[in-house]
Amino acid sequence: MRSRSYDDPDLPPTFGGGTPTPWKRSTPAPEVAAERDLVVEEAGTGFCGAVVRVEKTAEGLTVTLEDRFGKHRVFPMEPRGFLIDGKPVTLVRPKAPGPRGPLLSASGSIAVTDAKARVARAGRIYVEGKHDAELVERVWGHDLRVEGVVVEFLEGVDDLPAIVDAFSPGPDARLGVLVDHLVPGSKESRIAASVTGSDVLVVGHPYIDVWEAVKPSSVGIREWPRVPRGEDWKTGVCRSLGWQMTTGEAWQRILASVHTYKDLQPELLGRVEELIDFVTAP
Asked: How many CA atoms lie within 13 A of 29 on its CB side?
């Protein structure tokens, strides 16, 4: 009877009945924590983007990348699955940070973790537009809820005198206002001067729009472009940067790049802090 022979599963395969051929082993790739904003290239597709998040799924860990156009793609975190500076790496889940003293809010203040939202004060902070309000909420939202300060937007500074008159500010109901492009000799500065008083504080930043108050490095650009006079500024910014999206979509991209006060210019930071102090002063 002819006997059967089976290859030993623990030995490498043989070719032509000769000496077992060793497996070719790939060099282990270094492990790199998939920290937020780390820029990598997916080895299989060539998709290049910044890390947005890492998630655990039934199939294993995945990483979401965002390219420079704001497009998101999800990839499995496989060994040697990504490139950094052209060299293969294995992305791993970032370690949870250990305790490092007091928990800070996005504005840099000590977070009050067990505080309930305070009943709204009579005082208010007004900002010039919806984008301004969303940016203030993103960085100072925790502080404002703890202090009971409500932020509303004007839809333009031209209506400010009528709003101040209707609000009837007083010592127990102070009004703070943040204005875009508040520079000497401007229309905004003249309107601000007409309403400023002991219970009304109007401050501003020098930027044409609050978009510019976000640091270019946080957005992933070298600088904010200069837009020719007469062209809609936000539309011109998108055109100059090659962003094929609406201005609303562009703002969402900009807003998503803001995580803490460190992503904002000091000309805005100081003014918002000044307004919060003003309306919450005893």
From this structure: 19
Mean pLDDT score, 96-105: 64
Question: What domains does the chain contain, in order, with CATH numbers?
Answer: 31-92 (2.30.30), 124-280 (no CATH)
> Tens of pLDDT along 25-44?
567 789 999 998 888 999 99
**Residues linked to residue 64 through DSSP beta bridges, in sequence order:** 53, 74
Burial class (CB in 10 A: 0-12, 13-18, 19+), 23: exposed
Between residues 70 and 17, the one the model is more confident about = 70
Rounded to whole angstroms, the Cα distance separating 272 from 134 reads 13
Q: What is the pTM of this model?
A: 0.60
Buried b (16+ CB within 10 A) or exposed e, 148-180: ebebebbeebeebeebbeebebeeeebbbbbbb
